Amino acid sequence: RHAMIEKKSWEEDQRILDKEVYPAWGKRKAADIIKRDVITLLDKVVDRGSPQTANNIFKILRRLFSWAVEKDRLKISPCIGIKAPAPLNLKDRAFSVDEIKTFWKTLNSVDLSMTNEVKRALKLILVTAQRPGEVSGMHTREIDGNWWTIPAERSKNWKAHRVYLSPLAKDIITDAIDEVKATRKIPAETKYDGFVFPCPHRAKDKPIERHAFSKALKRNESEDGLTTMGVATFTPHDLRRTAATFMA
After folding, report:
1. Which pLDDT score is estimated for 104?
2. What's the mean pLDDT in 77-81?
3. 54 Cβ contact list (under 8 Å, min separation 6)
4. What is the Cα–Cα distance from 123 to 125, expressed in whole angstroms?
5. Where are the beta strands (DSSP E) in the chain?
6. Among the listed ranges 40-49, 85-94, 131-140, 205-214, which one has the minimum average pLDDT value?
7. How far apart are CA 192 and CA 222, in angstroms?
8. CA atoms within 13 A on the CB side of 42
9. What distance in Å separates the CA atoms of residue 85 and residue 90, rounded to the nearest whole number?
């Protein structure tokens, strides 16, 4: 009633509820959930080594119970008086020039635990400075010559905007489309109409999920705080921030 209308990221809220909250609380009534239940749930997530996930769970629960109070489903929220379970990450990670070189070279030359679709999409985030979710859902119909028009329904601010595609960006997109055509046995001379980064594990009319980027990077983390790509641990959005930093 709220998230599906107000938030483009409602599917992520649903995923977190399905994975983290419902298994713990089952079919208990909202009115029976007390402050101690919330704290216990969050502490377990922090203790397993996922502090930022605990923060995300808390953010969703706090909004969920606040909505219930607004709608007079509950008299009071069990989240009142609870602080974020972990220190918030400062969103200031940006690659250095050397890190960009290492990242790019490693993606091209090392056998990583990620698909070619994810590799190319990560490159395209850096090259275009667009959001991971916008890149993952790129469709050939959005591309016209040197321009990529992200429709309003896919942009975070609900406004369509055009992105100039550099020769390097177009090369990445062409390589991605060529692999899709080869995988689906589409003749090379046939024009491809579909998602540039289709999900190999879902119906053919679905793109890869933006979470595929985070999961792939997680699989390539090492215990020393680095990744198997030879750079410090990073998120997909850090690639966009890197591009914006150097543009500035």
Report:
1. 93
2. 95
3. 42, 43, 45, 46, 85, 86
4. 5
5. 143-144, 147-150, 161-164
6. 85-94
7. 38
8. 24
9. 15
